[in-house]
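Molecular record:
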Amino acid sequence: LQNICRILYWTPIFKSRLVSYGQNLYVYSAMPQVLGRLNIQVGDNVRISGVSTLCGRNSGDDMPELIVGDNVDIGWQNSINVGRRIVIGDNVRLAGKVFLAGFPGHPLDAEKRAQGLPEDDHQVGDIVLGDDVWLATGVTVMAGVTIGAGTVVAAGSVVTHSLPSGVVAGGMPAIVLKVIGE
């Protein structure tokens, strides 16, 4: 029954929310929740858990854009909040409970928050995950961050600034722990 629902229900409905998609899109465990305005482009051989949320910023002039490369795994309970643009490169792995925070949802000013106003534009930023990046369970990536190709981020880390290619990083905030291959 699970497979029938995936093939005949969840995947076709999810595809209807996409601007473009490649071959072999595999949606499992239900249908991802898509909230707000969001243009989504998905490459070939992408696997995405239906227990994930893809959210586009509703304030601002630009249409938020999520670009997912080829051979990408988006795991269970991921939240991808697109402020302007999030790019996920080829061969990327997002383990469970990864949070890509392209916008915070609230302004820093307490009076503006109390009025229910959206975040200020300076709080919004793009996120870019290079090819072959692996974000382990529970990683949070903040707005304005680029993670270089082949980098691995340890479980539970919070990435507040860009990371170079080919390293293992971890911590709160994440720092480079070692160069891969050394």
